[in-house]
Write a structure and sequence with these properties.
The protein is an alpha/beta fold. The protein folds into 2 domains: 3-9 and 40-77 and 113-391, TIM Barrel; 433-440 and 474-495 and 544-735 and 743-762, TIM Barrel, CATH 3.20.20.210. The protein has 26 helices and 23 strands. The longest helix has 22 residues, at 32-53. It is globular and about 75 Å long. This is 5-methyltetrahydropteroyltriglutamate--homocysteine methyltransferase. L-homocysteine binds at residues 439-441, 492, 607. Keywords: Amino-acid biosynthesis, Metal-binding, Methionine biosynthesis, Methyltransferase, Repeat, Transferase, Zinc.
Length: 764
Amino acid sequence: MAQSHVLGLPRVGAKRELKFALEQYWRKEISQEQLQQVATTVRENNWQSAQDKGIDWLTVGDFSFYDQVLDTSVLLGVVPERFEAGKADNLLDNYFRIARGSAPEGKQVQPSEMTKWFNTNYHYIVPEFTEEQSFSLNFDLLAPQIEQAKQYSAKLKLQLIGPVSYLWLGKARASNEFDKLGLLPKLVKTYQELLTHLKTEGVEWVQIEEPILALDLDDKWLNAITQAYTELGSESEVKLLLTTYFGHIADKFDRVAELPVDGLHLDVVSGGIDQLSEVVDYWPKSKVLSVGIVNGRNVWRNDLRQSLKALGAIKSRYGDNLWLSSSCSLLHSPVDLRSEQQLDAELTSWLAFAEQKVQEIADLTAALVKGEEAVRIALEASDASVASKKTSSRVHDLNVQERTTNITDILRQRQSEFSQRKLAQRAHFNFPVLATTTIGSFPQTDSIRQARRAFKAADISEQEYTLAIQKEIQQAIHEQEAVGLDVLVHGEAERNDMVEYFGEQLNGFAFTQFGWVQSYGSRCVKPPIIYGDVSRKQAITVEWSKYAQSLSHKKVKGMLTGPTTILAWSFEREDLPAPQIADQIALALRDEVLDLEKHGIDVIQIDEPAFRELLPLRKSEQPEYLEWSVNAFRLSASGVADTTQIHTHMCYSEFNEIIDSIARLDADVITIESSRSDMELLQIFNDFKYPNEIGPGVYDIHSPRIPTKEEVSELIELAAKHVPVDQLWVNPDCGLKTRNWDQVRPALKNLVEAAVEARQKLSA
């Protein structure tokens, strides 16, 4: 009999219960016991729901208070030395100190670096290794989850990041760089102890995840996989399901097939269904083959009939050893479509959130075990959904398609080269050396949220809402002028989210009420759904930007979200290639850019924080992506005059491999995240002479900790060692939406004072 399981479930709760509990705990409004109770309830709901749907194996260990990589670090005893000073007397607060630098108990400290989880919008806390790194097991976070799971099933499968991927994800922290793989023997021994312990706890299977198998690995890392699993698999007292996702591993089937593991999970959504016809030549029928055939990263309903057709070819070979699952963890999906009351029936019929995807896994398994008649109703609904989406008139817009077809190369080029634009802009703006600015957003206060809720509920008029937002813009301008920033922003008080806000003003987008997805910690986003051709309905930001500029003699940036980021942070349609969707969005943004310029807004920031996020994991596929994403940005930005300064922003990106593509964006100024990594990202500029201007972040906004003037000064001076001073800007890492004004005021004051001092010192 085929069996079903899920790689992981959302952990924020259907109503974001964990998010709100975390934030209450951090504000000392609830106790740690109350926080733990919310976590217990979230896990209980997840397991009960999966069991009710008929899922065979319950997954434990997929829950986290902040991030699963940080959980692994705590489990393995990998805690950087600086967190030993000022420790709290409990594990959870020390855990939060690593994640965010601050907790209800314990001294504030610089948090660990945070970066993107492969090519997703999820962020993980980067492990920090030393050459003498030791490992020791700490079960305090995991043990309560296992004990709770035993109440629901004896068939338990534990989710665990594998040792080789864990090392890959971490960074060597030392004055002298060292080979992280030198730590592998010690780490494998610790994993052996862990697996032995899990057996005594009643765990039968361990879903041991090695997502780096979907990357281009050199022999050193491939040999590390062989070494690790030869040791682990030969002595493991629990069964190991080697788990991969986010891409294909067909080029490694021969190596993987030799490993002494008990099962293999393939992502046949991201990696392609062709893997199923290839894996049979390598993977023995005596071992479990888990097929991730339900998309864990998008919201479209599974074509059950097509999935069953693909599975039919391998059903007879693997029989009882065929497992069905999601392609990856459902962490990347909203929780439950049943919560949505405002989507129309047609669109709803096309969608599946995490709860519905679990049902799809159960239905596919039941069809293989009992026959298709057992799930006839589900198959008929799937067929109707597929047919409806293909024929719906809401999907296609001939005007948009014609405009996209008529895009020429000239539309993607600025009027002059940057060397000429730079002279024109310096004469036009006369910004100082080391000009200061922020990335765009300012704190989303209770008054902002109340005004937005009241307007959506029709409790206040549009005029009253406009006045309320204008009041917030006035405060943002006043605060910036008070600390002396050189280039201002309007604060984005009117925006619920940097992507959703724009999607609401564009045709081809739909929006959910409760489609929240965790980005990191308590931070959740609600991605729009791109279901059809995209065009601008009307001007989006012009009136807010005009109003803000009217309040100050200093320049106020127009703030837009770029085409690749809007695409990356939405659930995109599956019937149109990504480059075409990006160009449609870029044309809509180009209209907005030109309208801003026409109304006197001549510093315009087009954010692309997700530029690297969509980069394919395989190098052979990267040039095509970089070409169309660069072209989309240039299409959105290139219609303006030389004196209009185009900014862009990127965060949580390893830029080294794509720096030439970033330069090809041809933005006049780029701002990047760099403070948590001590300007490590800027080392690339020692060799690559970046032609335009750049603002490396000197204020880590993802921590409530306020940087001192001395710390900011140190980062500015460090940046100046890599980039000429006349090319540098001074700014935070990212937007300030998640902070409060009591944190922002002193931090920006320190930033400006440090910039003024550095201006005198470095440009003398």
